[in-house]
Structures are given as structure tokens and as C-alpha cells.
Amino acid sequence: MRSMPASPLRVSIHGGHSGQFCGHAEDTLEDIVKAYIAQGYSWVGLTEHMTPDRVEHGYPEEAEAGLSAKDQHTRFTEYIATARQLQEKYASEITLFVGFETEAFEGYQLWLQHLLDTLKPDYIVGSLHHVQDMLIDSTPADYRKAADVFGGMDALYAAYFDRQYELITTFAPAVVGHFDLIRIFDPDYRKRLVKPDIWPRIQRNLKAIKERGLIMDLNLRALLKGHQEPYISRPILEEARKMGIAVVPGDDSHGVKNVGQFWEEALQVLSDAGFDLTWESPV
Q1: How far apart are CA 26 and CA 29, in angstroms?
Q2: In the predicted model, what is the mean pLDDT of residues 24-43?
Q3: End-to-end CA distance of the chain
Q4: What is the mean pLDDT of the chain?
Q5: d(CA 148, CA 229)
Q6: 11-272 CATH fold
Q7: What is the pLDDT of residues 175-226, one digit of tens each?
Q8: pLDDT tens digit string along 54-65?
Q9: Which of 116, 125, 182, 195 is the one with CA 20 to 30 A from 168?
Q10: How far is CA 141 from CA 16, 60, 64, 144, 186, in A?
């Protein structure tokens, strides 16, 4: 276990989902911002989920709540406006970056570009939660169903990393979110990640990240869900360090109670992997 430098700046490069603007989160966005301030955060990226182009591409809880795609888009534009207001209101206490987290459903490119052109976020977190329009991080049953459609877990991983590569090379998001989310319900992920059909894809994607000067999110929500390590898993994290890729903690908060969770664990993971704990901001 490596020793850590004293008091690195508290930051979150991926966080700020709120019950105000997301059906699977809690609390208001302002209350979450106040929680970051109370814990002494220097800067935080607010990164609500991107609105879907149609209801089938959204999250099940939004459809169950009766929200149409238009309703969700209206709410999303309200999120951007509210985040901008908070950015100004609390400027003397914290630096807020107003962004959003992408989706990568089928045909996402035109819709994502439209959102970038019209809403002009400070940055985006390049994430995918779908593979061929199938949610992979909602339930174990949905995850297994997706694997069955692809003909097995290895093929599902390959499709995930191929779509991620497309997202990285098409949009060069300032931050790549929870890089290996595809392992979420796979107890054998450590063996699977290094398989010959998967590891070269990981290395290809990391090379694309390095070439574009992007940042990777050390996503702490995995620990909240009971995983033994954050996204990014240790072999990928070590490869990123060797390539000189910046990695910055993101608590992926979905409410006040998530703010700052597992901060010390994040510092230890990054220190043990050889990172120097000086953070690059997304803007």
C-alpha cells in the first residue's frame, strides 16, 4: 500500500444526478450542490443523463412515470438551466461544470450532436448503458438477456467496447465514464477482461483516449453496489497509468447521501496504482 500525498483536492468529475431531473435519483440538484460545498469540494461536474430521442431509449422508470420523450427533453433543458443558475449562485464557494452523461442507443449520434449544438454544455461524459438498445446495467435478468442475444458474454463485451470506441472516436468526450461498466453483473469479469477477443479492444480504446487527451472517470458507484473495486478495474487502471492517461474520481452521486462516498478508497486505489493524485479538470 503506497503512502498518499496530504489532502488532495476533493473533486468529482462525474456526479450530480438528482431526483429533480432523474427518476432513479433523489433530492434536488441544489441540495446536492450544497452537500459538495459542505464537504469542501473544490470543483464538481454536474452530469445528468442525456435525454432520449424517443421513450424506448429512456430508462424504464421514466416510462413508468408516464413521461414521454418530449416530457423528458423539457425536464432535461430545465436541468441545464438550473445547473447554470447554481453555477453562478455558488461561484464563490465551488466551481461547477455543467455537463451531461451520454447514452449510446442505436442512432444516438444525430441526437447527441443536436443536444451539444443547442444546449452547449461545458463538457460531456461519454458513457453507454445500452448495447443494441438493450440496457445492460438495470437488472441481472436484462444483462443475461443481452448476453443471450449476442450469443454469450464474450460477444456482449466485444460489442460494448466496439460501441464505446465509436463514441470515443466520433465525439471525443472530455471524460470517458465508467469505462468497464459492462462487467456490472459478471462475477467472472477479471478473467473475461483479459481474453484475446476483449483485451485488445480495451487497449485500442485506451489508445484512442490517450491520443485525444481525454480523462477517465474512476467511478465509485461500483463500490456502493457491492463491487470489490470501482470502475475502472485494476488491470485496466494500470494500463491507463502506463499510457499516461489522466484518471479522476467521480462519485456518480444520485442523491445527497452519495456525495463524497468512498473518497478515501478512491485515493488509495489510485495511489496504489501509481497515480499522483493531482486532478485534471474537464474544461
Answers
A1: 9
A2: 94
A3: 32
A4: 93
A5: 26
A6: TIM Barrel (3.20.20)
A7: 999 999 999 999 999 999 999 999 999 999 999 999 999 999 999 988 988 8
A8: 888 888 888 888
A9: 195
A10: 28, 14, 19, 5, 12
Give residue limits of the domains in the chain. 11-272
Whether this prediction's pTM lies above 0.85 is answered by yes
SS3 per residue for the chain: CCCCCCCCCCEEEEECCCCCCCCCCCCCHHHHHHHHHHCCCCEEEEEEECCCCCHHHCCHHHHHCCCCHHHHHHHHHHHHHHHHHHHHHCCCCCEEEEEEECCCCCCHHHHHHHHHHHHCCCEEEECCCEECCEECCCCHHHHHHHHHHHCCHHHHHHHHHHHHHHHHHHHCCCEECCCCHHHCCCCCHHHHHCCCCCHHHHHHHHHHHHHHCCEEEEECHHHHCCCCCCECCHHHHHHHHHHCCEEEEECCCCCHHHCCCCHHHHHHHHHHCCCCCCCCCCC
Locate 169 and state its grid cell: 472516436
